[in-house]
Amino acid sequence: MDDLIAEFLTETAESLEVVDSELVKFEANPTERKTLDNIFRLVHTVKGTCGFLGLSRLEAVAHAGETLLGRFRDGKLEVTPLAVTLVLHSIDRIKVILAGLEATGNEPDGDDHDLISQLEAMAEGQEVDLSTVKTVEVPDRPIGAEIDAAEITAPALGVGDIDPATGRALRPGEVSEAELEAAFAAADGPEDGLKPGDIDPATGRQLRPGEVSEADLEAAFAAAEAPDWMNDSAPEPVAEVKAEPVKAPEPVKAAAPVAPKTPAAPEPAPSLGGEDAQGIATTQSIRVSVDVLEGLMTLVSEMVLTRNQLLQISRNREDSAFATPLQRLSTLTGELQDSVMKTRMQPIGAAWKKLPRLVRDLSYELGKKIDLVMEGEGTELDRQVLELIRDPLTHMVRNSADHGLEGTQERIDLGKPANGTIKLAAFHEGGYIVIRIADNGRGLNTARIREKIIEKGLASRGEVEGMNDQQIHRFIFAPGFSTAAAVTNLSGRGVGMDVVRTNIEQIGGQIDLNSVAGQGTTFTIKIPLTLAIVSALIVGAGAQKFAVPQTSVMELVRTGQNAEHRIEKINDALVLRLRNKLLPLVQLGPTLQLEAAKDEDATFVMVIQVGERRYGLVVNDVLDTEEIVVKPLATILRDVDVFSGATILGDGSVVLILDPNAMSERAGNMLEEKAAEETEETITDAGSQKVAMLLFKAGNGAPKAVELEHITRLEHVESSQIEIMEGRAALQYRGKLMPILTVNSDFSGLISAHSDETHIQPLLVFTGEGYAMGLAVDEIVDVVEDHMTIELSADRPGVRGTAIVAGRACEILDVDYYHLRGLAEHQRQPAHSSEKAVA
Amino acid sequence: MKTCLVVDDSRVIRKVARRILENLQFEVSEANDGLEALKSCKEKMPSAILLDWNMPVMDGITFLRQLRKEDGGKAPVVVFCTTENDLAHITEALTEGASEYIMKPFDGEILEAKFSEVGLL
């Protein structure tokens, strides 16, 4: 195969991609003349070029397609969905032939009569039977892959070889004369009028390819009125103009057998210069093979590593003369890296190109009216990433059309717009690109998914009962999960969303969904812009270093004994109370079972966001931030899901890169619970479990409740024993002075009760490290066990919110608040302990 | 040296034409559509133009009409070369001032013959 064919393949592939989406547009709006012109021209060009290369099978199909399109263009035929389907079929066939051509260098054998006859029938306005047309599977071409001439070409002559015909060296991009001749010899002529090879009655010889028969020409000249200027400049009579070309072929005919097939003319030097000039004038972009770009990327990656090493060395030497130039080198490397990245960037639209056609076919097949809306096609991302997300995206759009959207009639019955909408949107967010696939269909069937989870044994009935809708929905990402009642040929094969998830997670992406019954489902995919170089935090745990991709780290929180934020333990799970929210924690060292981690104190919590979930990763140390080059893991480590790769640091050490996504799995179900709570903006220590609560009355307003586990003791003391002074109260309790608090800091009740010898004051006693305090209440009502779900948030200190406990709205006491107040009293106590004045 | 401008929206066809024309001692330049061709002609009129019919932006026939209105635009020999080979098309092309009309696919011999007919060789 020569490079003309390679060039042809690239050119045609580009054209056909455009045709695909144009046709869908065209069907939606058949009056759009411009679209039809575009399609026609593209198919026409394909056909025209085929002729030059002797691709007769391809030409025949393109020709039949073109004829039909011509009918539409001339307004002689109405555009029906059937007609568009037929044209799409012929384009698929062209693609198949092209794929064969690309693979072998020759047109694959095959019969296109089925298709061509139907195309012709339709063009003639006859009945068309689509079932006779064989459907073909169109093989995917990689996105943006240039046909690499070097790869697929096995030219008879290499560039620089001497072509025996021309006697000069071939320039790049040229084909040898012999090859061209062969191509021409194989070429079929056009269908109309006389075909090459037919005998032209006027000249008495066979028409050569490219010739118009003499009769045709004569007729044309007879019909043509020469423009005025021709007559002015050439004083010959019109008849002369007419006659001359008719005669003209004669000398050619005579000359033809004599003329050497190839003029052995030496290549004139100036034409070389001419070509160069031409190149400069018109070239704004050049085609570069993907391999070259990949190679460039690898080199830059290595360079970044070396730069990091240099920086590391320089950092350890303060007076280094290298510091300034090194800084410059570092900046340049960064810029170089960015530039090389840019060459790899492609608009995501490239991965979407096939979707309009896909949706169109689906809508036809499923009998649903579907609009596809695409936003942010220009959003760019690494072509490697693009390649990897193309299939998942296609699959998801397919799912949305097949399962997500209702049938047209059902939609109308539901009072929804008849046309279902699938909306694709892409935009940048941080170092990620976010892709949303939303439909306005029926939403996920939560009940059916729940059944399926139990049926497939993915979770027990009890577990499922306790899950919220979103948790249940996420099970559609579980392996082997498919709820499609009817397996259509489109989706529902059961290799659905888990494959999608795996594909996306493989490239460091995350997928999540949000579904509202009756309103539709939205999938959100977050994928890194590039996979090759990432910013990472280098952290320490268990005497080892690990890299954590920075894009998933939201913040760092210092923790430990004296820090503001302390790690707490609830139900055996570690949490961090951060800005009034509980953050579930995963301890890096113990999770990885590092021996050395046992003696370490947690000093930092990295707040990590994975999809909609958030958790804290407890580490011993945060050492550095560094641009790391991601290297694949050794096979032996590949099964360990918490690592996504390895890298070499500036100091030459090899560290493993943590996969924040997989780590989050380690936090287990607790995570899910916490995430659910966080979305409700509430905090419930024990989730949906029943807790023992003490109900009591104190102050005015609603009854109060406090979890029993916070209370050390309940005491009933004689009011007269409580000593009250300057708006403070205290009780001698077990040999110590214990501060007494009230819920509203109002001691009037205590003062009035003080003189009453018989009044018994109920107290709730709370204890902390080395101190105790009492809370005076009016009446202890009950102890109950109930779910505690805080429904209204607090409006004043000391109250965490309002919840329904045992059928009554109760204010839930914020124990921490009283602990703090109690501690404050203790610190004030010594100064006043001598004056036990009684009011 | 004689110059020829190849106007075609297919790179493959331009390459084929360039190959043939260079053998015929032409200095070849290329244009992807009628508008590009017109721009190129305004800079420097070629001796000959090999013109395709169906092209984006500006098609061959429109280009031909515009070209003939330009200063010196009547000089170049215009050879229409396209698959549009019905009578109406050929007539239209000749009416607008095309010097010759050949069908795709063409080869070296055909092109050489046509060019010598119109006095370029």
From TrEMBL, chain A:
Swiss-Prot/TrEMBL catalytic activity: ATP + protein L-histidine = ADP + protein N-phospho-L-histidine
Residue ranges that the Swiss-Prot or TrEMBL entry lists as coiled coil: none
Low complexity bias (residue ranges): 253-262
All residue ranges annotated as the CheW-like domain in the record: 533-669, 690-824
Sites of Phosphohistidine modification: 44
Keywords: Kinase, Phosphoprotein, Transferase, Two-component regulatory system
GO biological process: chemotaxis
Occurrences of domain HPt (ranges): 1-101
InterPro entries (UniProt xref): Bact_Chemotaxis_CheA, CheA-like_dim, CheA-like_homodim_sf, CheW-like_dom_sf, CheW-lke_dom, HATPase_C_sf, HATPase_dom, His_kinase_dom
Gene Ontology terms: cellular component: cytoplasm
Pfam families on file: CheW (PF01584), H-kinase_dim (PF02895), HATPase_c (PF02518), Hpt (PF01627)
GO molecular function terms noted in the UniProt entry: phosphorelay sensor kinase activity
Source taxon at top rank: Bacteria
Keyword field contains Phosphoprotein: yes
Statement: the UniProt record of this protein carries the keyword Hydrolase: no
Location of region: Disordered: 253-275
Database matches in PANTHER family: CHEMOTAXIS PROTEIN CHEA (PTHR43395:SF1), SENSOR HISTIDINE KINASE CHEA (PTHR43395)
Function, in words: Involved in the transmission of sensory signals from the chemoreceptors to the flagellar motors. CheA is autophosphorylated; it can transfer its phosphate group to either CheB or CheY.
Designated name of the protein: Chemotaxis protein CheA
Taxonomic source organism: Asticcacaulis taihuensis
From TrEMBL, chain B:
One GO term of the biological process aspect: phosphorelay signal transduction system
Record domain Response regulatory: where: 3-119
The entry's keywords: Phosphoprotein
Sequence intervals crossing the membrane: none
Modified residues (4-aspartylphosphate): 52
Coiled coil region boundaries: none
Protein name: Two-component system, chemotaxis family, response regulator CheY
